[in-house]
Structures are given as structure tokens and as C-alpha cells.
Design goal:
alpha/beta; Hypothetical Protein Ychn, Chain: A; 5-stranded parallel sheet; 18% strand; globular; DsrE2-like; Peroxiredoxin family protein; DsrEFH-like
Length: 131
């Protein structure tokens, strides 16, 4: 069995963020090598400003109170936890180019690469997940 977990984060909502970072941090905490490929709206999860205002789906605003009551970490806190656990963050170069973004728009410590960069990591990962 592989010791790698590969995750594609292509959506930028709160529920997607919690799925991505919960799986990533749990895997990293159990000694797995983890990489997350952030593309399209998923880039918001590591964008310096956007990560502080990740939206809840319309009509689901009541979850904000539930997250607070349950002491669920914020998205920036989860990002920091994942980085502390050694999770590798790869920002999609193509998507960044399309959106007019540069590495400076994102948190420190990310790698910028294309699909080939991610596929090189993911080729022997098990599981590979997409959110």
C-alpha cells in the first residue's frame, strides 16, 4: 500500500475546504506523505485574502454557528495546521495564469506547478481524492 495521499482541491467553498483539510491533516498525522493540488476555485483556499472569506453555500449560513459552537478551526488555521504537518501545497500554474494571479497572491510555502507536477506525485499515491 502506498504511503502517499494525493488530493485535488478544485472547489472553493467552506464544505470543500473542510473536506480537503480534514483528510489532508488526518493523513499527514498518520505519517502519510500528502500533496494538495489547488486549481480553479480551490486556489481561494490558499489565497492570502480569499481564504479569510470562504463562502458557505446559499441557505447554509446556519452552519457558521455550528462550526463556532463545535470549536472547528477556521480555514486559515487548518491551512497552518496542514503546513505544520508537512502537507505539500501545489498551486496550478495554468489557473493562476488564467486568473491573473502570481505566487505572491498566495500564502508562503506553496509550490507552483502544472498538472504534470501533481501527477508526478500522484502516480503512486493511494488514495487520490478530488473535492
Amino acid at each position: 500500500m502506498s504511503n502517499k495521499v494525493a488530493i485535488i482541491a478544485s472547489n472553493g467553498g467552506v464544505f470543500d475546504a473542510y473536506k480537503v483539510f480534514n483528510i489532508a491533516t488526518a493523513a499527514a498525522a498518520t505519517e502519510k506523505e500528502v500533496a494538495i493540488f489547488f486549481t480553479f476555485e480551490g486556489l481561494n483556499l490558499i489565497h492570502k485574502q480569499a481564504m479569510h472569506a470562504v463562502p458557505l453555500p446559499e441557505g447554509k449560513e446556519h452552519f457558521a454557528e455550528g462550526f463556532a459552537k463545535a470549536n472547528v478551526p477556521s480555514i486559515p488555521q487548518l491551512v497552518e495546521m496542514a503546513q505544520e504537518l508537512g502537507v505539500k501545497f501545489i498551486g496550478c500554474q495554468m489557473t493562476m495564469d488564467v486568473m491573473g494571479l502570481t505566487k505572491d497572491d498566495f500564502i508562503d510555502g506553496i509550490e507552483v506547478g502544472g498538472a504534470v507536477t501533481f501527477l508526478e506525485f500522484a502516480k503512486d499515491a493511494s488514495p487520490t481524492l478530488t473535492f
